[in-house]
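We modelled the chain as a single entity of 436 amino acids. Its sequence is:
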Amino acid sequence: MEFAGKRVTVMGLGHFGGGAAAVRWLATQGARVTLTDSAPAEMLADSLEGIADVPLAAVHLGGHVPEDFRQADGVVVNPAVRPDHPMLEIARQSGTRLTSELELFLWACPARTIGVTGSNGKSTTSAMIAAILEAAGRTVWLGGNIGRSLLDDLPRIQSNHDVVLEISSFQLHYLSDELPGPHVAVVTNFTPNHLDWHGNEEHYRASKQRILRLQSSGDVAVLGQTLINDGNWVQCGPADQISLPDPADLPTLRVPGSHNRENAQCAAAVALGLGISSEAIRRGLASFSGLPGRLKHMADVAGRAFFNDTTSTTPESTVAALAALDRPVWLLAGGRNKGLDLPAMAEAAAQHACGAAFFGQSAPLLQQLTQTHDPDARCTAVETLDEALAWCWTHSQPGDAILLSPGCASTDQYRNYKHRGAAFEAKVHTLKSNQT
């Protein structure tokens, strides 16, 4: 992919670094870069600061200009942008090539790539793989949807390194058919998700399966436990499938829950497929302490243990989190409903939580569903996370856990899931300060 002298529009600067990295990298390649975002400048201040020294052909914020898409040689699409966006249709009709920050990286990356996707567990599995490879003495780069673009690191990535990428369904959708897939592909599991973006389950499944279809003969694929006997997944790519190891061969993990044992199985299978020793696998998994915002024990206050699981944006993640904790749990859940299976989460709350405080747009429905499963279930529907935390604090007692595991998107009240998790941690630290 040659960009020198080309007119390239970067659509969506965002807050996670991918847009800024694409702008910087394209500029180094000699492209004439136009940046456009529907958000106003004040909402993008942190990201704009990171590209303040980059020469740009044009900047259009607070809305899009059709000519930026009609006259461009290429458009780098932020993965949050829906495929049916009117500006993308203008680009398609003009013959403009659509690409993404991840595709830019994959075309240019000289190292072996390990791509990890799935409806749940992809971040933890990615980090587990990196921990194992590091324990084996490999030089490892971890990025992608886990929160870090690696475009800026390309000058330092060498051919004998390993790159582990968490890849979302949005990112997979925008990868072009001619792009070589990752040398190792992992799909942890599959349950309906992001149907508000994909439109239906079939589109979501097809996007996930692209990670396998883009691979070549001689590549390696790992499927999670629930997919290994599913012909829809086993037969949709040309790579060699690596079997999962026996769970009994894995060490004791520092992260709780059977779902994390399944994540560890996938990570270990990748390592075995790459010829990593069993001892390095055990060391890497045993040392892994979890990721921020993923069922992370963050504080103890007056005998209550607080867990931040803000990355839980699906009902399945919340169900797994409730099952993972071995103490009485008070649940904080809710947010924007993405059209997913909320009854399953409500049933788990009724069965496994001492009580639940639901907040945000989905709160009334979650309370109704929970009390349908158990009319005597202790639960409430409130507007904000502040109110939900106060309710759980008042009703809990020493020895209990207070768990933020929303099971829904954050964008009804927060910029993103990280913003939600940071707000929760700030509230808990304030609570702790008030107790001392």
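As a brief sanity check on the tokenised model: DSSP finds 17 helices and 17 strands in the chain. The first helix runs from residue 18 to 28.
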